[in-house]
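Lab meeting notes turned into a lecture example. A postdoc, R.K., suggested we walk through two folding results consecutively so the class can see how the record format repeats. The first protein's sequence and structure tokens come next.
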Amino acid sequence: MTPAIKQLTRNDISFTLHEYQHNPNSSSYGLEAAEKIGVQAEYVFKTLVAQTDNAILVVAIIPVSSTLNLKQLAKAANSKKAHMAKPQDVLRSTGYVLGGVSPIGQKKQLATFIDSSASQLTSLYISGGKRGLDIELSPNDLYCITQAKWAALTS
């Protein structure tokens, strides 16, 4: 049981687990998840960790079929610039490895921003905290448990 699952259970939030056999040669963890779970890519969201120009780590949750706009993330985080965080900083801060980073149950809860496209969905899929495990839940529950902010994060 991952920290994400434990936190959802503790907070009595409804969710569904989706496990699949992860292929280590996959070029995109998120697109692989969509294919193996059998859902359209716009319902599967990836968790990205970036660092702002004032050295603060932040989380961006965007559709796997989209690209993060770092300028828009920086603006949402009240910063001038942002760049992708180093893998070792992501692991140290969240407790999760790349390809399995969940926005829920992180060692240190980072400021979190969810792409506003998610607010139109009834459910979405995020990493469950390890490769080959996704969690389906409502965008509103994700918003609440991560204390997130909605923002336009993609180009």
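The second example is placed directly after the first for contrast:
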Amino acid sequence: MTEKKQSNVVGAVIMRGDKYLCMQRTRSRYPYISERWEFPGGKVEEGESHHEALIREIKEEMDWDIYVGRKLGATVYEYPDFRVGITLYLCKAGDNDDFKLLEHLDYKWLTREELPALNWTAADRELLPLL
């Protein structure tokens, strides 16, 4: 049995009032994450800090500037083809509340009570209790 490759990922928890920003992934070759919902963010590159990765990923995927705050928590999730370690950070949007969907299908601003109704990736669903 081969060891599954682990990706280390950072996610941004961004709030507007009492609502959280949720992003819908694009189609993927992996059906269990394809078009599912997640917190915005992405992979940590070699030599990058979590804060640097989060700022870079949000800029690349949404053309948006954010401030990275405190760590909310982390999980490691084992998918059928790979393992992912996700660390969530509380983040604040810059002055401009205007982002673009460069790598996502859709977005929603939802209250904590509305979040469980979305079809989340399994790893992101595990992180919902941290909010």
